[in-house]
Write a structure and sequence with these properties.
Order of helices and strands: HHHHH
Shape: elongated
Distance between the termini: 68 Å
Strand content: under 5%
Radius of gyration: 21 Å
Number of helices: 5
Largest sheet: none
Number of strands: 0
Length: 128
């Protein structure tokens, strides 16, 4: 039966996964968001220098600040995961190890984002 298959049929589906562009765009979008949010975050943190813990908590608890901190954290973890994924894809050639490391990186990134966002929400809602 395989003698009737054309060369195109034999290689169809073995090429690109067609997600490279989406991956590239996501990496650039998170990088752009991080540039803007990092500038805001640095200004925010420098403005809090010398203040006590209660003042810093009150500043983070303000709605716009809490939203921007959450945006910064989500963009940071997402961008880090995308960047580490590219590094692992380029330099890890053992497929089982690559899958294990990719899964670990995604798990750590999601866990870190969830814990960080939870901390900001607790501060914003006054439960801290």
């Amino acid at each position: 039966m395989t003698r009737f298959r054309t060369p195109l049929k034999n290689v169809r589906g073995l090429g690109a996964a067609k997600t490279g562009t989406e991956h590239f765009v996501n990496q650039r979008l998170t990088a752009t968001a991080l540039v803007v949010l990092s500038i805001w975050f640095l200004v925010f943190v420098v403005g809090l220098m010398g203040d006590d813990h209660a003042t810093a908590m009150a500043a983070v608890a303000k709605p716009w600040n809490a939203i921007l901190v959450v945006g910064f954290l989500v963009a940071m973890f997402w961008h880090a995961q995308i960047g580490l994924q590219v590094v692992l894809e380029d330099y890890i050639h053992n497929s089982l190890l690559a899958v294990a490391l990719q899964t670990t990186v995604k798990f750590i990134a999601v866990l870190g984002a969830i814990v960080s966002v939870f901390a900001v929400v607790r501060i914003a809602l006054g439960a801290a």
